Amino acid sequence: MFSRTENFSQYIRLYPVVTFFLALNILIFVLTYIPFIGNQIYLAGMGVNYLISAGEWWRLFTPMFLHNGIMHLLFNMFSLYLFGPELEKIAGKARFLTIYLLSGIFGNIATFFLQDPGYRSVGASGAIFGILGAFGALVYYTKHILPQLRQIIVPIIIISIIMTYLQPNINTTAHIVGMIVGFLIGLSYFHPKRIVSWRRPKT
């Protein structure tokens, strides 16, 4: 399910939303390393709670596309590359888009309300955890139909949560809230009655 066998052109054609976010995150990361303007882009977009309080509300959105170092970027983009396509294929482009964006945004909103005023954060992890949460909802509805999916997804979710609390400098709030939001949206999107209506032939 999560092994990618497509070539480059097939991947782009089959998973345009995932491809867009991969390209956007990588492009912005490169831009932040351009002398003079790169640091300004990073500082203008990172999540800083006291600046959000001062009215810079875009910082609830822009941190999703910034990363603190190459390893941070690679980890998040590899996760998106690996898990995103299957969810985009199952849910569809528009539903995948809402899962990704709303999980990331609500993760940042929760960070704003639950962390101290000086807290700073960047990264797509809230959105990535939203993807895992949506898969969790799919497992909930298909546990008796697709037991192999449960065997794959549940350990990944558990390990991801554990690593969230073991690694330093991690926005645990965005991770956990992003996963919860993805799960709740998934419960709506993947409800058996809704899936039947998606697949019903048009007349």
Automatic annotation (TrEMBL):
Residues 55-190 form the Peptidase S54 rhomboid domain. The chain crosses the membrane at residues 12-34, 64-84, 96-115, 121-142, 149-166, 172-190. Its EC number is 3.4.21.-. SUPFAM superfamilies: Rhomboid-like. It is found in: Membrane. Pfam families: Rhomboid. It is an enzyme of class 3 (hydrolase). It comes from the Bacteria. It is a multi-pass membrane protein. Belongs to the peptidase S54 family. This is Rhomboid family intramembrane serine protease. The lineage of its organism: Bacteria, Bacillati, Bacillota, Bacilli, Bacillales.
